[in-house]
Every structure is written in C-alpha cells, then in structure tokens.
Amino acid sequence: MATLSLHTSRVRQLHATINRIHIFLHFTAILFLLYYRTTHLFYEKNVHTLAWALITTSELILAFIWVLTQAFRWRPLSRSVIPENMPVDIELPGLDVFVCTVDPRKEPTIEVMNTVISALALDYPPEKLSVYLSDDGGSYVTLYAIKEAWSFAKSSWLPFCKKYGIRSRCPGPYFSSFANAERLLRSDEFRTEEEEIKAKYEEFKRIVEKVGGEDENNRVVPDRHPHVKRTEAGGLDMHHMFAEDRGRGT
Fold first, then answer.
1. Number of alpha carbons in the 13 Å side-chain half-sphere of residue 242
2. Which of 42, 58, 149, 210 has its CA 20 to 30 A from that of 99?
3. DSSP helix/strand/coil, 69
C-alpha cells in the first residue's frame, strides 16, 4: 500500500539558472585572478615574494570557502508540507522541549522568554507538549519573567496564533519587520487584535526589563537548592526547574 508524502520539494529553475550563470562568471574571474597571482609570483623578478605568496594563499583559501558555499545556490529548492496527508488515526508521540539558561546578564531574559513562548506556541497537540525551562543560575528575574511569560502566552499569544494561523510563533520577530508578509490581506479585526496583543507584549517586556534592571535581581546563586515548579492549563504543560535563591525565599 502506497503512503502519501507529507512534504514536496521542487527545484526553482529560474533561480537555479541565474545562480549558475553568476557562479560560472565568478569562478572564471577567480581563475584569472589566481593565474595572475601565480604567474607574477614565479616569473616576475621585482615581486616581494613573501607578501605576494601570503596574498595568493589568502585568496586561495577564500576561493575554496566560496566554492563550498555554492551548493545551495546551484540547486535551490522550494519545500512545502502537506499536513492533510497525515493519517487521521496516527498516534503522535509526546514532545519535550528543553530551554536552558544560566546568567541573565549574559543571556537577555527577554530573549530566553521569547524562546519559551515560541516553544509553547508550537503547532502540536497541546496535551502532548511539555516545555521545560532549566535555570541553572537561580536568578530572581528568570523566575519572575517565566511567570509573566506564561501568563502572556496563555491569555493572549497562543489564542491569537491559533485563531489566525500565525507562522512566526516567536513574538519578538513577529512584531518586527521580519513578519510583514503575515500582515498582508488581513481583516480590520485582525489588525485591531494584533495591536492589542502587541501592546500586551510591550508591557510584558517593560516590566521584565524593569525587574532585570536591578543588579540584585540578576544575581546568580552559587549555593543553590534545586526546585521544580509546574504549571498546566489548557492541555499545555510548563515546567520551570530553577536553583532556588534561599536569600529571597523564592
């Protein structure tokens, strides 16, 4: 019995043709340059041998690196998924996503929370999805931010993504120019709701950055006691494993 494919791929012929012409011209120019370098190195008398040899060697290395990066341009592919071909009775496995962090001074808390939120928003059955945040530093700002991130994701971001089929599931890049294509041909209702979600996200960022602005809240705990907190709602399972700060009594 034949099985239906869950994805397709095709060669983008126009892009491939243009790329191959460019590669051929570029490669020809490289050959002429290397020919010029090597002939002057061995046959010209008034050439500074060491300097010329170093330049020639560097250009050979750069040419080799350039050749290695041309594979995807030689045969550019366009891929698409066909989720409707997935069997209805298929039993999907449980999916665990681990996000690790240590020091909020080196790993911006907002960026870590964006990763957690995008993991929570994965297009996967929520009852089979568990997201773990492992905080080895035990800083207060991470504990505070994960609670705010969970509240924002559960009440605003996840319903918005599900309702409108948002593809850029990370709120940081979504509310930038990178996701402008997602806003094309959208209704006025979508734009109104998007502005509300954006305002909530900016407020979430503001309060997390305010808490993180105090050095005491960014302190990494050297003597720490492991602790696990679990939050579950709407089928989603969120685990926060952190090093408990005994001084703060978190």
1. 27
2. 210
3. coil
- The residues pairing with 230 across neighbouring beta strands, listed in sequence order, are 239
DSSP H helices, the chain, are 13-43, 49-68, 71-74, 109-120, 140-152, 158-164, 171-174, 188-212
225-233 and 236-244 beta bridge pairing: antiparallel
Which 3 state secondary structure label does DSSP give 36? helix
Q: Is the dihedral of CA 134, 139, 143, 146 positive or negative?
A: negative
- Give the integer Cα–Cα distance in Å for 192 and 140: 35
Measure the CA–CA gap between 78 and 11, rounded to whole angstroms. 6
CA angle 208–109–124, rounded 5-degree value: 100
Neighbours of 112 (CB within 10 A): 20
